[in-house]
Amino acid sequence: MNYHHMNRHPIAAGQRILLCDSIASDAAKHLYWATHGEWREYDAPWEQIWTPLTKEHEDQIVVKFMKRFSEEPWVPHKGATIIHQDYPVGYVTRYGRERYPDVLWAGIDICEDGYLGMGLGTEALRLWVDYLFANSTAHKIALDTWSLNHRMIRVAEKTGFVREGMERHLIQWQGQWLDGIHFGMLRQEWEERLAKR
């Protein structure tokens, strides 16, 4: 599918990628990503879909995506599609926890295998962090990952996140105990990095 002329609203622009609002045709991509891609092996793989989807499950994924797509826009956005050369390659997300109203949690997935290892994730996360801080009053942005996700750990560190802690042997997956790794970036740290660019 050629995405070149689709009507997308950019949220943030980098040198090689755009973060854009999702559009209706992205539902097919999200449906494909639900069962394809190396990313599923590292982003909480026990929660991923490893068997072919039934028609009912496909419909549920599309309905969920379309509901999110048609909701009133949030500021800051709850997520965005990562576009590289007019092609969707993944997405960024953000969520909060009611107990911690001054903290936003960020997430990112590059879902197309052919675009891994190109630095797109680092650029996307930097753009997303810039966007989230610039469009909120958040004091901190947090990011959680697993000890098996070496790419995400490198991306977080290159983006300027500080490793804040680790929960050892939090979950067992395929015979291996995994640690939960916690990262954070304070607004002041972001502002200092921004001033140096």
From TrEMBL:
- Which Pfam family is an annotated match for this chain, by its short name? Acetyltransf_3
Residue span, N-acetyltransferase domain: 37-188
GO molecular-function term, one example from the UniProt record: acyltransferase activity, transferring groups other than amino-acyl groups
Q: Which InterPro entries match?
A: Acyl_CoA_acyltransferase, GNAT_dom
What is this protein called in UniProt?
Protein N-acetyltransferase, RimJ/RimL family
Coiled coil, from the record: none
Sorted keywords for this record are: Transferase
